[in-house]
Structure formats: C-alpha cells, structure tokens
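Incident review: delayed structure delivery

Summary: a single-chain prediction request sat in the queue longer than the usual turnaround. Root cause was a stuck worker, restarted by the on-call engineer. No data loss occurred. The affected request and its eventual output are reproduced below so the record is complete for anyone auditing the incident later.

Affected input:
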Amino acid sequence: MLTYEQVTNSDAIKTYIIRADESLGALGFTEHSFAHVIHVAETAGYILKTMGYDDRTVELAKIAGYLHDIGNLVNRKDHSQSGAVMAWSILNDMGCDPGEMATIVTAIGNHDEGTGVPVNAVAAALILADKADVRRSRVRNTEISTFDIHDRVNYSVKKSALKINDDKTLVKLKLTVDTKFGSVMDYFEIFMGRMILCRKAAECLGLQFKLIINEQQLI
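Output delivered after worker restart:
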C-alpha cells in the first residue's frame, strides 16, 4: 500500500509543489508551499482520526492534503480539477491501489470553493483543513502599505486553530485577529464562500461548524 511517507519523499512531487508555489508567488497569492500542504495533510489526518476513522482512511486524507494544490502548476483557475488529474497520474505511476486512488483524486477535485462538494469523508476533511489555514506567515508581501484585502485578512490573523470538541459534535475554527490590519467584515467579504463550504464539510462528518473570531462566535 502506498504510504504518506512515500509520497512526501518523492522528489518529483516536491518539485511540482515548489514550482506551483512559484507560479502563485508571481501572481501575488499567499504561500502554498510545504508549510501549507503539510499543515493541511496533518490537519486532515487529525480530523478523521479524531472522528474515529480507520488508520488507512486517515493516511489517504494525509496524502490528499499533501497533493491537493499541485494543480496550481497548470493554472490557478480550476486547479482542483487539474490537480486531481495530475494526482491520478502520479499515484498510478507509484502503484497506488485504484480504489484508494479514486478516493484521493475525488477529494482533491472537490477541495475548492465554487466547484467543491464534500462527497466523502476524505474530501470533507481536506476542505476543512485547507480552508482553516489562515495565518500571517502565508503573506509574501512585505510592504504593508500595498496590502490588498487578501493580504490584510491573512496578515491580521495572529493565531488560528481548528479543534473538534470532546463530544465530537462540533468543529471550531478559532481565529485571533488583529483588527489594525483587517476587519472581521474583510474576512467575511473574501471567505464567506469558504465558510459555507466548511459548514457543509462538517455536516458530512456529522459535525456542526463554528467560526469564532476574537472569542466571539460568528457562525
């Protein structure tokens, strides 16, 4: 069986992640390199492990998390679909089981707002893990005076944490926001679609989604 360790050790995959992130950097987007994809992989694994899924399903979620943004190598537009096709080819060459490959590819192809739907548990975990990764360190622009709204929102988030409660009924995204750089309204302006998708993903896993900003529940 293909493992998460094998995937993360692949030099070819590392190259695709680096080059995809370089393309996004040229377009002015936030960081989508190893810090992001490893965080997403580990968070997706945490979600499914906490919800009692078997170890193999947890492993598939981590693989999907690591690979989910490689489609940006092709183009930012429709990157979830191009990334899914790329992942199928890569995983097929690595001898991945067809059924497991189908689960991973489906999750990658459904992780982005606009076209994404949490059609299975792995897709749901990937959506939550990806959309929860909002943080100051993802902002590349070092000139605060030239920040656009995406820079302001990400830079304003001093701390973020996605946690499932002990009763396994709620998943909470808690953000600590410095409103000197971005307002709560700014966050909703650009992330409302993502938060709606998170709510649907949480429901797929039998959870309620709660967004808490500066200790105030907003969703």
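Verification: The CA atoms of residues 84 and 143 lie 35 Å apart.
Action items: add queue-age alerting; document worker restart procedure.
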